[in-house]
Design a protein that fits this description.
34% of the residues lie in helices and 18% in strands. It starts with 8 loop residues before the first helix and ends in a 15-residue tail after the last strand. Strands 3-2-1-4-5-6-7-8 form an eight-stranded mixed beta sheet, with helices on both faces. It contains nine helices and eight strands. It is of the alpha/beta class and 250 residues long.
Length: 250
């Protein structure tokens, strides 16, 4: 995709991105798992940033209770397929971005094809089975995984890229199995603006990884407490007994 020097002028002015970084963004191919509370803001900011190609993967339709946090959609979109409506909205934001809608569920069987040709995957899904499958597929494809999660008033985001460093953890080094008390936001509730914060952090980390700017959250977890307004970053360790990457060859 060509770089528009006017549209992307603010990026080009940044010493850490500049023209070369913006060119790298224009060549980037990014898969986004889930076009919901996290995927929606992440996709918007990546399209606005000039990412070359976005693959939006989601099997669901827009429901009225999505609109409290899924900012890609409008009331008239209720009942429409999220991936297709997201592709339309992102294309309207920047027609030069190649947006592909995949109306299907991401699982162990479909993910190898869904991640084929991608440089990176962002996972904003809300169930651990899918998160684990995305982690394993990213490991197999040797591409970075930018993962985000939210619940009630708390959110977190991290980058998992074991292929970039011998001691870098994968997602399951940190969460080897689903917590027994895990519940979806349809049960626990979620403040809508929090998904915008974490989704934006996910997009920012993707931009940093692509352009080489700053220090990505590789092997670290950003944690935001919305009620207190406090945020912190913790380091994560590789688990040699990890069920996903424990037997990997450095």
């Amino acid at each position: 995709m060509p770089v528009d020097p006017v549209r992307h002028a603010r990026h080009i002015l940044l010493r850490e991105i500049g023209g070369p970084g913006q060119q790298r963004l224009a060549r980037a191919r990014i898969a986004i798992i889930g076009a919901g509370g996290l995927g929606a803001p992440a996709a918007l900011y990546l399209a606005a940033a000039g990412a070359g190609a976005l693959r939006i993967i989601d099997p669901d339709t827009v429901s009225l209770d999505n609109l409290q946090r899924q900012i890609l959609y409008r009331t008239q979109d209720v009942g429409r397929l999220k991936a297709e409506r997201a592709a339309e909205a992102l294309g309207a934001l920047d027609p030069a971005v190649a947006v592909e809608a995949r109306v299907m569920r991401a699982d162990a069987d479909t993910l190898p094809t869904l991640l084929d040709g991608m440089d990176m995957v962002l996972d904003g899904c809300d169930d651990f089975e899918t998160r684990f499958a995305v982690n394993r597929a990213a490991l197999a494809a040797r591409i970075p995984l930018v993962s985000g999660a939210v619940g009630r008033w708390d959110g977190q985001a991290g980058v998992f890229a074991p292929h970039l460093a011998d001691d870098a953890p994968c997602y399951q080094c940190w969460t080897p199995a689903a917590p027994p008390d895990a519940e979806p936001c349809s049960v626990t509730g979620i403040v809508g603006a929090l998904t915008g914060i974490i989704g934006s952090v996910m997009a920012l980390e993707a931009i940093k990884l692509i352009t080489g700017a700053g220090e990505p959250l590789t092997g670290r977890l950003f944690i935001h407490d919305g009620l207190s307004g406090r945020a912190r970053t913790v380091s994560l360790r590789r688990d040699p007994d990890c069920p996903a990457c424990g037997a990997r060859t450095p």
